[in-house]
Amino acid sequence: MPDHLVLYNTLTRKAEAFRPRDPRRITFYTCGPTVYDDAHIGNFRSFLAADVLRRFLESPLCRLVDDDGGPALQAGSRTVLHVMNITDVGHMTDDDAADGAGEDKMAAATRRLSEAKKSGKLPPGAGDIDPTDQHAIARFYEARFLEDARRLGLRVAIDAQRDPTLMPRAT
What we know:
With 171 residues, the protein is α+β, with helices and mostly antiparallel strands. It has one domain (6-151). Helix content is 30%, strand content 12%. It is built from 3 helices and 4 strands. The protein has helices at residues 41-58, 105-119, 134-151, and strands at 6-9, 14-17, 25-30, 79-84. The chain has a two-stranded antiparallel sheet with strand order 1-2.
């Protein structure tokens, strides 16, 4: 059994010793939620796995090897940066992002919430959102995701800075 971290490399299709580019600063990216509906346990499985990996990389139990195969820095002398995106408006139009009928997931959420508002059955906390505003829907489900993640004890790493000029509001 190896005395250092071994991960499966999807490029080489082999288990390999993890060698960070910079042993003092480990960075990694994972996909985050698509915020058109509440996240479910299947979604949280991947977020939990990323959280466990980050915590392990930060822990004294994590032993890494350097490029020469020797021991690298131990925890405490390295930082770990985990970035996770949030897929929101305008990024769910590909075929694989559509629902079974080929409808964009955010368009389906708009329709679903509009119908729920008419029937008085909006999700808790959604009373103030405009069900036709996809940005408002995305922010609503993003907040619910972050609250659920907090309740599960996950340390979610999201860069929430948004540039409104990158994705104009739909009119």
